[in-house]
Amino acid sequence: MYNKSMFDIKEELKKLPNKPGVYIMHDENDTIMYVGKAINLHSRVRSYFRANIGRGPQIDQMVRQIARFEYIVTDSELEALVLENNLIKEHCPRYNTLLKDDKTYPYIKVTVSEDYPRILFSRLMKKDKSRYFGPFTSAAAVKDTIELINKLYGLRTCNRVLPRDIGLERPCLNYHMKQCCGPCTGEISKEEYRERIDKALEFLNGNYALILNDLQQKMEKASEELDFENAAKYRDLIASVKVVAQKQKMTDSSMEDKDILAIASDDKDAVIQVFFVRDGRLIGREHFYMTHVSENPQSEILMNFVKQFYAGTPFIPRELLLPEPIEDMDIIEKWLTQRKGSRVYISVPERGQKEKLMELAAQNAQLVLSKDKERIKREEGRTIGAVKEIEKLLGIKGLNRMEAYDISNISGFANVGSMVVYEKGKPKRSDYRKFRIKTVSGPDDYACMHEVLTRRLLHGIEERQELEVRDIDARYGSFTKFPDLILMDGGRGQVNICLQVLDELGIKIPVCGMVKDDNHRTRGLYFNNVELPIDTRSEGFKLITRIQDEAHRFAIEYHRSLRSKSQVKSSLDDIPGIGPARRKALMRSFKSIEDIKNASVEDLAKVPDIPERTAREIYDFFHPENV
Prior knowledge:
The protein is an alpha+beta fold. The protein has 20 helices and 20 strands. The chain has 5 domains: 4-96, GIY-YIG endonuclease (3-Layer(aba) Sandwich), CATH 3.40.1440; 107-206, no CATH class; 258-373, Nucleotidyltransferase, domain 5 (2-Layer Sandwich); 387-565, UvrC, RNAse H endonuclease domain (Nucleotidyltransferase, domain 5); 571-626, 5' to 3' exonuclease, C-terminal subdomain (DNA polymerase, domain 1, Orthogonal Bundle), CATH 1.10.150.20. The chain has helices at 9-14, 41-47, 57-65, 77-91, 139-153, 173-176, 190-204, 208-224, 228-246, 298-312, 329-340, 352-382, 384-394, 445-469, 492-505, 539-567, 580-590, 593-598, 601-605, 612-622, and strands at 21-26, 32-38, 68-73, 98-99, 107-110, 119-122, 131-133, 258-265, 270-278, 281-291, 319-321, 345-347, 401-410, 413-423, 426-427, 433-436, 485-488, 511-516, 522-527, 530-533. The strands form 4 sheets. Strands 13, 14, 15, 16, 17, 18, 19 and 20 form an 8-stranded mixed beta sheet that branches. A 6-stranded mixed beta sheet has the order 4-10-9-8-11-12. Strand 17 (485-488), helix 15 and strand 18 (511-516) form a beta-alpha-beta unit.
């Protein structure tokens, strides 16, 4: 808690410099509420504390909560803009308009610096000597295109280091299916493989006519030779190429990169629609949600989006088209030019093809906003509405957090427990917990459940006490938040175990059993010693079923992972100095444990990353009679 008496706002306002910079508003808990930039810090910050001049209730509400402010002076307004954006992304202040989506766009990456390049899917564009194509808005389309190119040119998809690994391993299934030319076998030279890559690069640059003509000739030749299987293969490839080419049909004679932005908003939400035009082609579109937009004009929402989005995207187009002018347009233009390393233009189109694309983007933004409202309404019925149904059925109020528990074992082996958490009818996976049973051996579900519940609740009590000693808000602990309702995967027996644990710890929480019928389907709820029937068509019933299934799934997956770990073991694991990397290198060189056992010290020492001393230890391990 911040002591307001330590900060005299009136005195601090007098000290503000007449320089550009960034100001940061804190509340009484010293939480950052708002970050802003100013050409003149003295004038801008003082304006918040003047009498109401039409700022709107949201800003007035923020001002009433300001306990202190701080500022950072910069040399220019451009530096202030960059710093403001960085601080907003770092702290996500609740009174700043925030870009809700944190998306990274897919690129097609060609590793041209490798001797035998590959074509890969990438979410990041790095300075790694590779060539990148994109960004694209559909990950599925990118994957389809990569798959098509690899089939067309027989390119490798493996992670082998070539030419180092040529001949070390058997070729993969793609080679045998004739979908890879097999550079790992040494059958194709570096120069021949590079010719294939050059053709792939031509394809990615939009030159589809060459490959279509080539495929057409091959199809006709195969058909004349009555090789109908290959003819059908070429026919399908032609169709795939045409699909990719068709997606690029909207072109611009300027052949420039540009992003076209439009906005739709109401009193709570805003949607920004972006059309991506690359090399004159409309490659796709994407929409973004903006939060904290109440009472903000559209121009301000657009300005915040541009600053936040283009600070994070690896690619900045030559031109940004906006539906209306925004504040600081010149300074943002300079900032983007600085980031891109070449001139960037921001403009508002008024006629022509650009204006038509802007109208189309605006229609899409409005459509997304209206459709999303319907989706949210349906989602609330499945979540909040379902929770209210459960409240009414059980006769309780204030139901927000529900925790459900389940036990999993096979004949008592590796007993485990699961805890799943739902808040407002939605799973809160960050609060899920797994428990490996420590005190129970054998198949005793009641004893296992007693341990799980005791450990969970005791942990919460201890964490609360620790946070109180350290004077930290209990909300920041992972176990401190107790549920409003505990759901047990079973009837009377499981409920009584939970009530026993709560009584032992002196805690009062409603407990409800999810009762199943003979076919293992939920039929009702056991609460306060009474089995309550529930309408199987209701959203409340569907939510209970989802929670029960999720608790069961989470426990089963944990148990399965423990079984797998206990069963996967190699004799190489028992040799000192042999870890996963060296074990993999040995298996790559010798193919089997038997081959390693029969190898000499000299042969073992030839394996990459295996020094002579380790080779001797491996040999001695398999030949103890010689030690």
